[in-house]
Amino acid sequence: MAAILAKDFNLKYTPKFEEQPHQVLATIHGSCPDVHLMKTIEAFGTGSSPLRMLLATDVASEGVNLHHECHNIIHYDLPWSIITLSQRNGRIDRIGQTKSPVLRYLRVSTNEGMLKGDETIFQRLIEKVEEINRSTRQGETVLKLYEPEAEERYIAEAGILPGNVNVLEKPATVAANEATELDVVLKQASPGHLADQADFFLGKTDVAPLSVAAEDPEPYKDSRLRLFVDKQFLLEGYRVQFPVMRMYELVDEYDARGRHLPNTTRKNQGGTQFRIALGEWQAAGHDPHDPAAPPLTVSWPIDDGLQNVTKTFYPPFTKVDREADYARAYEVFQQRYQG
User: Fold this and answer.
1) Nearest Cα to Cα of residue 122 among 169, 81, 76
2) pTM for this structure?
3) Contact predicate 129/85, CB 8 Å
4) What are the Cα distances from residue 331, in Å, to 151, 201, 236?
5) Beta-carbon-side half-sphere exposure of residue 116 (alpha carbons within 13 Å)
6) Highest mean predicted confidence (pLDDT) among 85-89, 197-201, 289-293, 333-337
7) Which of 65, 158, 178, 188 is most buried, judged by most C-beta within 10 A?
8) What's the CA gap between 219 and 206, in Å, rounded?
9) Region 210-216 average pLDDT
10) What is the pLDDT of residues 303-314, one digit of tens each?
11) Among 263, 228, 188, CA closest to 34
């Protein structure tokens, strides 16, 4: 597609990664090395190069700020996800934007059978996104599924296949009822035993409760959730109640001194600069998992560029595994109080 655009606009273009920041038209995608990816984004976002047109996959949909030099987005493809579209729009439609964002969506118009229904759903999808753009709501609040993949699957199964053009008018049943299901399951458990567990974890007693069966011997057949009065229950509760925290675990890293490494997914200050510096540091032959590797020093601007912050991070850089931490904590409590 980049080659076609370059031809139509009579622009010079090469797909070489290292040349992207220096062209009027550039492309970024998942195969682009981090160093070249961030340099291209920085060139486009700061106006520090001739780059004026950026063709991107969803690598630019979250954690990237482009609003300083750009106020136009054209969605060449339309994913079946409100979250994804909102994240894309959020690259330019954000605090600090000095112009009115121009958002365009390319879609096919047709009167043919099922495809006509698809067009209607797409129209409602765009309308929902526009409603979010005009408010302070998040894309996740519409279907309450919190993950783009879950939205796409739900819209396909509950909207496109059965021809339900109203699929976006209310939250997905499973997601909306998940917390209610957990409440129902908990109510079916032994109230006395749950009270004992609460006292134990709040430090009101040193005696850990023994695992006992719920008063109702019949399993809860109508729910995907199951009650576990043991370590598994603790882990299942974390997975169900904290999906966003689990998502951040995929990107969060810490250095040897416990300092959080800034990243663009959380939109941390210095996330972009750290990514670029890390790529150059690795290109010099350093391993982020090697305790003997030299420290990495990174600087980034704050207060609208009025001053800089410089921080040094010490290898090894490691991810946090909260599930493993919770499992270990449970085992420690169990050994300490149950022998």
Assistant:
1) 81
2) 0.49
3) yes
4) 36, 13, 16
5) 3
6) 289-293
7) 65
8) 30
9) 47
10) 667 778 899 999
11) 263
